[in-house]
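Example S7 (structure tokens).
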């Protein structure tokens, strides 16, 4: 005997809301079928909706192959902001396991036209992908992020997957000390990277060039620490190589 679909959805929704993003065990469709979900750092609201959709779909044919095909065909990984997922069914204990993971947001993205007008905005995540900005809204609603995110400004002619991935890799590899100070990241059409480092008193423009960003970041951290110790930050830091920098203060400009 199978439950009415509406009742099934209400049961799952209630369990998800009660347990939020923890492991969930429940009975669905038939008292002999159990499911287990793990949301990781995903938004409970969207991932809960996904769990309902998948469990309901699985109840139709009880076929894991059909369920996996459905996930791909319906592009559910993209629609529900997943970085990875694992769906398994153990016929011995009749348990459907849904394991979801979602990416970390590392920057807000602003794409501009040549005339400086904004074309659109999005979110950059640690996998190097640009996704729907609503993802940030869902995470903030659930207090899964509370920090201020830096802005990544891109020229629309320079929206290349490889370029954006390089920026993401740099931000992920950068120390928390550096990442916490970055307010804006600019990647120009020639793929030169500029960072705007901000604190309560100053804003520092850091010209990183086209390459060796990770190595330069170590030098940058030491340079900032040195000048912060003197309570006097430069207005410009320009890398002429991975090891050499030019520092300018506002009165020298």
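Recovered sequence:
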């Amino acid at each position: 005997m199978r439950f009415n679909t509406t009742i099934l959805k209400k049961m799952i929704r209630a369990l998800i809301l009660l347990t939020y993003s923890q492991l969930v065990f429940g009975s669905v469709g038939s008292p002999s079928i159990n499911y287990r979900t793990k949301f990781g750092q995903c938004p409970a609201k969207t991932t809960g909706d996904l769990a309902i959709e998948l469990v309901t779909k699985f109840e139709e044919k009880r076929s894991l192959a059909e369920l996996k095909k459905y996930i791909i065909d319906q592009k559910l990984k993209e629609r529900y902001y997943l970085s990875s997922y694992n769906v398994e069914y153990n016929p011995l204990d009749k348990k459907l396991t849904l394991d979801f993971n979602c990416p970390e947001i590392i920057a807000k993205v602003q794409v501009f036209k040549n005339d400086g007008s904004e074309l659109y905005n999005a979110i950059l995540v640690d996998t190097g992908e640009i996704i729907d900005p609503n993802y940030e809204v869902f995470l903030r609603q659930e207090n899964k992020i509370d920090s201020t995110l830096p802005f990544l400004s891109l020229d629309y002619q320079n929206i290349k997957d490889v370029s954006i991935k390089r920026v993401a890799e740099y931000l992920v590899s950068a120390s928390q000390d550096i990442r916490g100070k970055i307010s804006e990241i600019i990647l120009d059409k020639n793929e030169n990277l500029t960072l705007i480092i901000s604190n309560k008193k100053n804003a520092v423009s850091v010209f990183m060039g086209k390459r060796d960003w990770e190595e330069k970041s170590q030098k940058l951290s030491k340079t900032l620490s040195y000048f912060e110790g003197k309570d006097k930050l430069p207005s410009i830091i320009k890398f002429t190589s991975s090891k050499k920098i030019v520092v300018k203060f506002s009165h020298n400009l």
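Notes on this example. The chain is about 35% helix and 30% strand.
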